[in-house]
Every structure is written in C-alpha cells, then in structure tokens.
What does this fold into?
Amino acid sequence: MTLPQYDNFPNITGDRVSLRQVLDTDIPELIEISFYDAIQAESIEQAAEMQAKINSDYTSGDSIHWAIVDNTTHKIVGTCGYYRGFKQGEGELGCVLLSHYKGKGYMTEAMALAIDFGMNTIGLKRIWAATSKQNTKAIQLLERLDFKKMGELDDEIEFELNPQGS
It folds into this structure.
C-alpha cells in the first residue's frame, strides 16, 4: 500500500487548526522545526532541500506532511504527518511544534485530525509513533490521544494507537 494519489493535496480543517501543504513561502518560518532523517536544518536553503525531499516522498506515496495553521491568526504553529510505513498498511505519525506555541493545545487537535485522516481516508490498519524517553510532553500528548506504550529501545519509546479509543 502506498498513499493514494490525490488530485489536490489533502487539506483538513478543524475547529481551531487546519492542516495544509507546506508552501515554499513557509520555509523561513519553519527552520527551527525542519528535519529530515533526524537531522535539523540550519539554514533556509537546507530547510528548502529537506522540504523538497518531503514533497518527493509524498509524490511517491511514502508520506504526507502538513503545516499546522491557527484558523484565527493564519499563522503556522507546527507540522505533523505520516512519515513511513504505508507499504505495510500502517503509518508512523510525527509532529513538531514551534517553541512559542507549546502548551496551548494546538497539537492535540492537529494530531486528532491527522489520526482521523489516516484511519478513515487512507485506511491505515495501524498508527504508531516514537519519541525519546525524555520528551515528556510528547509522551503526554500520545497518551491523551489514546496511544499505548508498545516497547522501548535504547532512548526511544514506541506507542501504538488503541483502535477502541478512536
């Protein structure tokens, strides 16, 4: 299974936030949270290269990456998406929030929108996430979204969505 081809990039609107495609004009705002293969961008150029790889991954059906936008201010507050696993009918869900928006509830709604899309539009059989043991905020977020701890490797904890809770 790969991500289905969509005529238009899937935008999702919630009560407080929307998920939309990351645009080239967004990149300067996203350097702080631009990553690819666990490497963080250090410049606009590097962030643009990373976004080009992310866009290529989407085109090939391997991932989908959204900008999280505050519906009131229209400011980008973070990013989230599915970054691997589609070939097995599953998706690894990940997210990053700009530091000045942390603790304000944006990510809970954004991840709920992404989970709904993954289950009901893509048809994923399994949704999972991994984070470091020290990332207590991410652990709390995943638990709030009804993910259950599945295992630990070195410094990382893997979580899986409890289908009964969705």
User: Anything to note?
Assistant: Residues 106-122 form the longest helix (17 residues).
